[in-house]
Design a protein that fits this description.
Helix content: 25-40%
Number of helices: 3
Number of domains: 1
Radius of gyration: 13 Å
Distance between the termini: 13 Å
Shape: globular
Strand content: under 5%
Length: 84
């Protein structure tokens, strides 16, 4: 099992951008995105969606659980909840 990525790693940056896009989509849609298709316009603001959605470590697509309402989750510090 690989060690967790550092906060400056490409993986961490991808996950941060995906999380940010997911939250922005949730706010704009007034509900969580239900699919990659709904998330893509928000990912495009962060970079190239096809690159952001793939782990630079194992070259596999990240698994995103669609329809999760993140606005109701409690944050700790400044962290956006990410389950990886």
């Amino acid at each position: 099992m690989a060690p967790p990525p550092s906060l400056d790693s490409p993986s961490a940056k991808n996950l941060e951008r995906i999380g940010d896009a997911y939250l922005r989509a949730t706010v704009q849609l007034n509900r969580p995105p239900a699919s990659e298709k709904e998330l893509r316009p928000f990912l495009k603001e962060q970079g190239k969606p096809d690159q952001l959605l793939v782990s630079p470590v194992d070259k596999e697509k990240y698994v995103i659980v669609w329809g999760v309402e993140l606005r109701m989750m409690k944050e700790t510090g400044t962290a956006i909840p990410v389950v990886a």
